[in-house]
Amino acid sequence: MAQEAREITALPLMQSGRLAMRDGQEEKALEIENKRRVAKGLEPLASLDGNEDELPRTRRGRICAR
């Protein structure tokens, strides 16, 4: 998924196209997260929204100071 994001060289000018691209990326992220959760014996998530407490710290988008 990260490799695909790096290979994007152009973004759609229309907002609807950008939203569709974002939704596709979120679906892929949910699929990856659910594979991880199933491998650990956890229930899959219906969506990534509102489940920050269940996600690993690195996936929350927060930077931790050392």
List keywords for this structure.
66 residues; 2 helices; elongated
Could you describe the 3D structure shown?
With 66 residues, the chain is an all-alpha fold. It has one domain (2-59). The protein contains 2 helices and no strands. The chain has helices spanning 2-6, 15-39. The two termini are 28 Å apart. The mean pLDDT is 80.
Overall SS class: mainly alpha
- The H/E string reads HH
Radius of gyration: 14 Å
* Helicity, as a percent range: 40-55%
Total number of distinct structural domains: 1
Mean pLDDT: 80
- Portion in beta strands: under 5%
Amino- and carboxy-terminal Cα gap: 28 Å
- Low-confidence segments, given as residue ranges, are none
Shape: elongated
> In total, how many beta strands?
0
**How would a textbook summarize the main sheet?**
none
Number of helices: 2
